[in-house]
């Protein structure tokens, strides 16, 4: 991996956006990669372990979906606050705090006696991830500029893909050999290394530049929680009950109140509405929501389909996902360079379209048939399309704001992506509740929806981004 880091961290090009040379460019990238890899590893590993957790702790489709959403909900709602906290208290300081909280919550997950305790620990993990994710990108955004920043972000995205690739097979092996609780201990050595490197080599940035919007954070969390609860209730019962309508209405009302509050606070808001005056920024936001919503549903449902519908072991299901992460990891750095040369519009249009075609290929998915002919073609196409989108999307978002808002912008983009996954997982509960042929049929319907969302996201990028 060290070979991959030399180019983006060349001392002559690794300058901050203030024009000051970064003292330890290589270690700065390493620290941010390790920190963000915590979130990537945890997400990919937990998906593979879902059926085993369900058998051990009990619970139906809604309970298992909340094992994912208990983590995604605070992550999506508080990423904005996490970015603003980095701007206020210093990105390195908040990054380290988030890593510590994430590690402690991982121990809680491993020791959980029941689903309620597990969901609580997962929620605390989400809070830790909301602190570390935007500040890992914020540190890169403030440490590099120009093409060097594009390559650094591409390397960061590549490392996340590698972490996601390692997570499912290693996690699947641990589930089989030791038990599902062992997967959460995977986070501890990574967290320790990230903290040590950040303390020694990463420079502090943005200290005292922002404010904390606790009112906005509370409203965003309550709105997302209410909406997610309503969607999960509807998807598991296959009916729009009165509680579901009440939850949906309350969520939308709180979203409206959140927008009003952010407008009133102006530049002191954790999500300054002035950012939406930019057409490209709006386009990137819509694209992120659609594309990552489509992807989030697949990442949760495919391992479940293979294990429950096809009799795969957790290790086999983890290995089945390996091509996805390998392709993204191999290509993300190249697409980061491409974006620096041709701009984001072309890769962010082509990538989602290819991804949509990959989802369409998932209509052939049948866990009882050959993996090589029914599953792998769709995974490969989705991975190729996402490789075109991951690094260029991140770079485009960071470039769309000034220095003061890099933490807020990266937090908002990550929050949008996680919100898409949150909503998709809520709907995925309807698929998880199925068995036999009904499970395969429901998965195919989800694949059609995902294909449409991905194709629309590519068209949005083409229509809103500049040449």
Structure description:
This protein has 467 residues and is an all-alpha fold. It folds into 2 domains: 391 residues, MFS general substrate transporter like domains (Growth Hormone, Chain: A), CATH 1.20.1250.20; 47 residues. Helices cover 79% and strands 0% of the residues. The protein has 17 helices and no strands. The relative contact order is 0.15.
User: Which superfamily, in CATH terms, is the homologous superfamily of the largest domain?
Assistant: MFS general substrate transporter like domains
Please report the number of helical segments: 17
Radius of gyration: 20 Å
The helix content is over 70%
Look at the structure and give the CATH class of the largest domain. Answer: Mainly Alpha
Mean pLDDT: 81
Q: Which blocks of ≥5 consecutive residues have pLDDT under 50?
A: 1-19
Summarize the helix and strand pattern as letters. HHHHHHHHHHHHHHHHH
Question: Which CATH architecture of the largest domain is right?
Answer: Up-down Bundle
Number of self-contained structural domains: 2
Counting helices, strands and paired strands, the structural category is: mainly alpha
Spatial shape: globular
Strand content: under 5%
Largest sheet: none
* Head-to-tail CA distance between termini: 33 Å
CATH fold-level assignment of the largest domain: Growth Hormone, Chain: A
Number of strand segments: 0
Key terms for this structure?
single chain, 467 residues, mainly alpha, 2 domains, 17 helices, 0% strand, globular, disordered N terminus
């Amino acid at each position: 991996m060290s070979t991959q880091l030399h180019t983006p961290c060349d001392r002559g090009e690794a300058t901050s956006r203030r024009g000051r040379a970064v003292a330890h460019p290589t270690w700065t990238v390493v620290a941010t990669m390790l920190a963000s890899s915590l979130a990537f590893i945890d997400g990919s590993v937990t998906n593979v372990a879902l059926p085993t957790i369900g058998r051990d702790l009990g619970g139906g489709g809604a309970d298992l979906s909340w094992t994912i959403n208990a983590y995604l909900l605070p992550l999506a709602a508080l990423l904005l606050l996490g970015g603003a906290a980095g701007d206020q208290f210093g990105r390195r300081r908040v990054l380290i705090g988030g890593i510590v909280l994430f590690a402690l919550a991982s121990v809680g997950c491993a020791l959980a006696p029941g689903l309620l305790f597990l969901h609580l620990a997962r929620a605390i993990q989400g809070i830790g991830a909301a602190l570390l994710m935007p500040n890992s990108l914020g540190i890169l955004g403030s440490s590099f500029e120009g093409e060097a920043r594009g390559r650094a972000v591409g390397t960061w995205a590549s490392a996340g893909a590698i972490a996601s690739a390692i997570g499912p097979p290693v996690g699947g092996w641990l589930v089989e050999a030791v038990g599902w609780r062992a997967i959460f201990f995977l986070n501890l050595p990574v967290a320790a290394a990230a903290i040590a490197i950040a303390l020694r080599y990463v420079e502090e940035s943005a200290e005292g530049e922002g404010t904390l919007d606790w009112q906005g954070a509370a409203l965003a969390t309550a709105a997302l929680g209410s909406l997610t609860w309503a969607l999960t209730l509807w998807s598991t019962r296959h009916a729009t009950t009165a509680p579901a309508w009440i939850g949906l209405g309350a969520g939308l009302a709180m979203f409206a109140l959140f927008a009003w509050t952010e407008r009133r606070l102006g530049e002191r808001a954790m999500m300054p509405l002035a950012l939406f005056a930019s057409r490209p920024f709006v386009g990137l936001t819509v694209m992120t929501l659609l594309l990552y919503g489509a992807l989030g549903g697949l990442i949760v449902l495919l391992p479940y389909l293979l294990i429950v519908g096809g009799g795969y072991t957790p290790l086999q299901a983890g290995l089945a996902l390996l091509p996805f992460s390998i392709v993204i990891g191999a290509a993300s750095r190249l697409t980061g360079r491409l974006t620096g040369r041709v701009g984001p519009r072309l890769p962010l249009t082509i990538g989602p379209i290819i991804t949509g075609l990959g989802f369409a290929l998932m209509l052939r998915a049948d866990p009882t048939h050959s993996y090589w002919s029914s599953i792998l073609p769709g995974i490969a196409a989705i991975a190729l399309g996402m490789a075109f989108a991951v690094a260029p999307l991140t770079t485009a978002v960071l470039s769309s704001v000034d220095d003061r808002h890099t933490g807020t912008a990266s937090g908002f983009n990550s929050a949008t992506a996680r919100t898409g996954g949150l909503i998709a997982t809520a709907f995925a509960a309807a698929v998880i509740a199925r068995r036999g042929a009904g499970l395969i049929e429901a998965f195919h319907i989800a694949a059609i929806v995902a294909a449409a969302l991905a194709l629309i996201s590519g068209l949005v990028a083409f229509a809103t981004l500049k040449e």
